[in-house]
Design goal:
This protein is α/β, with parallel strands linked by helices and 495 residues long. Helices cover 23% and strands 22% of the residues. It has ten helices and 19 strands. The strands form four sheets. An eight-stranded mixed beta sheet has the order 12-13-15-14-16-17-18-19, with helices on both faces. Helix 1 runs antiparallel to helix 3. The radius of gyration is 24 Å and the shape is globular.
Length: 495
C-alpha cells in the first residue's frame, strides 16, 4: 500500500563508527547533493550528515543543496527538500526567484538536463499483456470469509453465482491483515465485488492495470475499495516544475516517472498521459472528497502484470482560475449553469495550447518517451480533456473524460461544434465514465454525458473508438475516478 510521508521526518540514526568522506556532485538538479540526477530523500540525509560533520560535501554538492535563498548550507535546506518530496511545497525558494529551476522553466526548448530523446515521429503500439490477472484483496475488515463475485459489465455473465468464488488465502501483509487472491481472465470478466455474503463493496473494475485492493470507506451503503500494486514496493519518482502560462503567470506541472525509469537508458521509452487537476493525482494530498486518483498505483499495478510503464504528467488547477481555464468557449452557456459566473468566457483554448505547445514539447525534449499520448481529466477537467483531444485529434491516441461537465452547453452547441470536425482516419479512443449514485452534481452531469457518444456518432465519429461506462453507486469524487482510472488506461492503451 502507499507509504505516506510524515511531516515529522526522522533524522537517520547512525549505528557504529562512521568514517567522514567527501561526497562530490555534478548535480544539474536543484537539491541534488548526491549528484544522481534526481531529488530523493538521500539528498536531505547528506545535508544532515554534512552539518553533523559525519561526511563532507564538495563545493558543488553544497551549492546544489542550497534550495533556500542563502549563501550557506543549513538544516532548512534539508527540511525544504523533505517538504518538496512530501508534496507540501511545489517549488524551492530559489526556484521562485531568479535562480534556474530543474528542469528550466523559462525556455522549454533549451537543451534538456536529462539525456535528450528524439521527438517521436511514428505511432507505436503497446505490447499485449497476459489475459489472466491475479487480483489480491487485503482483508482489513477482518471478514471470516472473503468472496469475489466476478462478472462481465456488458453481458452480465458471471464466473460463479452470488456470493461468488471463495478467494484463496495468500498470506499476511505488514499491517497484519490477511491477504486473499483470485485469478481472473480479464478478457471475459471485468468487474469484481468483494463480499463476505452480507457486506459487499461497490462494483470494482478489474483490468490488466489491476492488482491489490482494500476497503477505504463507504458509498451509498456499500464499501468502497482502494487500489495498491501488490508486490510492488517502489513508488516511482514525482517531480514538479513551473512553466510559463499564457496568462502571464507560472503553472505547476507534476511529472511522475514509473519505478525503474532510467534517464540514461534512452532505449527504454514510455508513453505519456497528460492530465488536468494534477494536484489530485498522487499522494495523500487534500482534495474535495479526501481521496486521490491513485494514478501511480495503477501504473505500478500494470507493470506488475507485465505491462509497460507510463509517465503521468499532471497540470495543477487548484486555484480560483480552475473553472475559467478548464472551460472551452464553445458558445453560449446552457441556462442556469453559470450561477457564480466562473464559467463564462472560458479560456479552455489557451489551456489546450499550453498543453500542446508548452508542456508536451517540454516533456518530449527531456524524458525518454515514445509516440503514444493520452489526455484525461474529471469534471471541469473532463470537459477540457475532451476539448483538448477534439482540437488535437492527430496529437493524442486516447482521451479520458470522467464525470465531464458537458452540461455547460446545450445539445445544439455541441452538435454545431462537433459537426465542424473531420472524424475520418484513425481517431483517438475515448473513454467516458459517470456515476449514477446519490449525488446531485453527478446526476446533473449525467444528463449530457449519456448523450455525448450519440452526438459524436451522429457527427461521424467511429462508434468502435468509444466506450461509455456507468456506476450505479458512483459519486462525484476522486475515489470513483480512481476506481475507473485503470479501466480507462487499459482501454486507452488497448492492452
Amino acid at each position: 500500500m502507499k507509504k505516506y510521508i510524515s511531516l515529522l521526518l526522522v533524522t537517520a540514526v547512525l549505528i557504529g563508527a562512521v568514517l567522514a568522506c567527501s561526497i562530490p556532485s555534478t548535480a544539474a538538479v536543484i537539491g541534488d547533493t548526491d549528484g544522481d540526477g534526481e531529488l530523493t530523500i538521500t539528498d536531505a540525509t547528506y545535508i544532515q550528515q554534512h552539518l553533523a560533520r559525519l561526511i563532507t560535501l564538495s563545493d558543488d554538492a553544497e551549492r546544489a543543496g542550497m534550495v533556500e535563498t542563502g549563501t550557506t548550507l543549513s538544516i532548512t535546506d534539508a527540511t525544504l527538500i523533505q517538504q518538496k518530496l512530501a508534496h507540501l511545497i511545489s517549488a524551492f525558494p530559489v526556484e521562485e526567484t531568479d535562480a534556474p529551476t530543474e528542469p528550466p522553466t523559462d525556455a522549454p526548448t533549451e537543451p534538456p538536463t536529462d539525456p535528450p530523446t528524439e521527438a517521436p515521429t511514428e505511432k507505436e503500439t503497446t505490447p499485449k499483456m497476459e489475459n489472466n490477472i491475479t487480483v489480491y484483496f487485503s482483508n482489513n475488515r477482518s471478514w471470516s470469509t472473503v468472496n469475489a463475485y466476478i462478472y462481465n459489465y456488458s453481458t452480465g455473465a458471471n464466473m460463479s453465482a452470488w456470493p461468488g468464488t471463495v478467494m484463496t488465502y495468500h498470506g499476511t501483509n505488514n499491517e497484519g491483515e490477511q491477504v486473499y487472491k483470485v485469478t481472473v481472465d480479464v478478457t471475459r470478466y471485468d468487474r469484481i465485488i468483494f463480499n463476505n455474503g452480507s457486506q459487499q463493496t461497490t462494483d470494482t473494475p478489474i483490468t490488466k492495470a489491476s492488482s491489490g485492493y482494500f476497503i477505504i470507506g463507504e458509498s451509498n451503503g456499500k464499501l468502497l475499495t482502494g487500489l495498491y500494486p501488490f508486490g510492488q514496493y517502489g513508488e516511482g519518482t514525482l517531480r514538479s516544475v513551473s512553466l510559463d502560462y499564457p496568462d502571464g503567470y507560472q503553472k505547476t506541472v507534476y511529472i511522475w516517472l514509473p519505478e525503474g525509469y532510467n534517464a540514461a537508458d534512452t532505449s527504454k521509452k514510455y508513453s505519456v498521459l497528460y492530465m488536468c487537476d494534477g494536484q489530485n493525482l498522487f499522494g495523500n494530498l487534500p482534495t474535495l472528497s479526501g481521496y486521490e486518483w491513485e494514478c501511480d498505483e495503477t501504473v505500478l499495478s500494470m507493470m506488475q502484470n507485465g505491462g509497460e510503464g507510463v509517465i503521468v504528467v499532471g497540470i495543477d488547477n487548484s486555484d480560483s482560475r480552475r473553472d475559467h481555464e478548464l472551460t472551452p468557449n464553445l458558445g453560449q452557456l446552457a441556462p442556469g449553469v453559470n450561477t457564480y459566473g466562473s464559467f463564462s468566457n472560458g479560456a479552455g483554448a489557451a489551456y489546450s495550447s499550453f498543453v500542446v505547445d508548452t508542456v508536451i514539447p517540454y516533456i518530449e525534449s527531456r524524458y525518454n518517451v515514445n509516440s503514444i499520448r493520452g489526455v484525461a481529466g474529471s469534471s471541469s477537467g473532463g470537459i477540457e480533456a475532451f476539448y483538448i483531444g477534439m482540437e488535437n485529434l492527430d496529437t493524442f491516441d486516447y482521451i479520458g473524460a470522467l464525470s465531464p461537465a458537458f452540461i455547460l452547453y446545450t445539445e445544439s452547441v455541441w452538435s454545431n461544434y462537433l459537426s465542424e470536425k473531420d472524424f475520418s482516419g484513425d481517431m483517438p479512443r475515448i473513454y467516458f465514465f459517470n456515476g449514477k449514485g446519490n449525488d446531485a452534481l453527478e446526476q446533473q452531469l449525467l444528463i449530457n454525458a449519456e448523450k455525448m457518444e450519440g452526438w459524436l456518432t451522429s457527427a461521424g465519429y467511429p462508434a468502435d473508438r468509444m466506450k461509455s461506462v456507468y456506476d450505479n453507486d458512483g459519486t462525484h469524487s476522486e475515489a470513483f475516478w480512481a476506481l475507473y482510472f485503470p479501466e480507462m488506461l487499459s482501454y486507452g492503451l488497448d492492452v
